[in-house]
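ok so for the tutorial part 2 we go from a plain amino acid sequence to predicted structure tokens. step 1 is just haveing the sequence, like this:
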Amino acid sequence: MMRVLIAALLVALVGGPSPAMAQEITLKLHHFVPPVAPPHATFLAPWAAKIEKESGGRIKIQIYPSMQLGGTPPQLIDQIKDGVVDIGWTVAGYTAGRFPKTEVMEMPFLHTNALGTTLALQDYQEKHLQDEYKDYHVLLLHVHGGALVHANKPIVKIEDYKGMKIRTPNRGGSVFLRAVGANPVGAPVPEVPQMLSKGVVDGALLPYEIANPLKVHELVKQHSEFAGPQPRIGTTVFVFAMNKKRYESLPADLKKVIDANSRRHIAAMAGQNWDNIEKPGKEAAQKAGNSFPVMPAAEVERVRAAVKPEIDKFLKELSAGGFDANALYTEVQALIKKYTK
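step 2 — the prediction. this is what the tokens look like for a chain of 341 residues:
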């Protein structure tokens, strides 16, 4: 009995158990791309390593790429919410209509670069997206470097899109494709290589960074961009989030470690990372001898004019959800302009 009292007194005097004695916490991080893909290698794995280091080894993060824990990419968002996994990284648009205010960010011709658009997204999230993500502890919302059409034909005028079946990750891409006379085919990114090789689609909306690990540059020969300050069609919003109850169950000091590596603390790093990883993806296509047709500025204006009515139509559809999508669209334009250098 005396030994127990002495031990308790010693613990009280030194302020509790040492970090070495503290309980170790293991978190499962699930996502849909292979470990060789840049999002895993340059962002998710380094982020997990940083959390482990800054927690003094008290947080261990086990990463499961390529949907190793089961399910499909569209199911990831519910795996996070329901606690099937502790942390997940997925695409908001894989569950179309679930995050309608987020979809405003994915409209054609808004995106400039990953850094500027991701920084704008932080302001937008804090002001307008709290309700959409109330069931999650959001670690970061971010975008990629922007989508272009990868296909086996050059696209240099609006008529070149007509009748093409093109994969899109979200409804923002569908808005664009319908407007230019193409047929949008929604699908998660892991399905793209098979869809291209089997002729299910004629092309795909993708950034360069993910096209490289998917070997898209071996399946197509043309990568079509736009002339002007916005060379990409649009972008995709990614959700990096933690199960809310799991986060709330963490000790206060470990919450601080997570918080110090979340949202505005990592937004600039993530945005710059996604801009940087475009380069090796494009270089792979260049080494393959592929072509990079650029639609002339005058033709881009024709495309913009054709797409505007579809944007207006979709914003009206979104507004039926009880918010002013047109006002949000105008605000997003100003935010992206503010953060784009």
